[in-house]
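So, read this over?
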Amino acid sequence: MKRLFVLLAMLLAFSLANAADGKSGNGGNCPYTGSWLGYNFDGMVSWTSQVHEISKKHGTMLLEIPFPASSFNDYGFDAVAILSNMKGEWKKIGGNSYFYRAVSFAYDANGEAEWIAKLTGTATVLGNDCDLLHLTDTVLRVYYANADPFLADDSYFWSQEFDEHYGYRIRADLP
């Protein structure tokens, strides 16, 4: 396992060294679209996503993150029974880099909304085959259920910044 982590770290470092201009891999033409399997900064699998294109400059995304829904019970929330997948939008910001924003909702056993989660960050597609995704500036903010997370970004009650992490494109390669 330690060898795998070192190999992954070397691969990521090599890709980042070649991506200083944000155009590594395919001359800045790497698409963000497709399916991704993501890993946290410790090298452990932690998310999957599907990214769809509306145009070359923006699209939609579905993000699945196993999230401990009861994490905010200390803030006076009931036990959360349902936590939705994150859904959002992305926009190309240059080269192979994309800004994304996704939201999720938590409900209690009675179907009452408890809180809203918003995740933002930057994704850069790297590698000669455009198969490595490098994520930076990732921030998760949690809002009360009656807040509008798009209007006033200072209305959140909890926030966490994440270290750089990465993902790999899921491909249906034939045997």
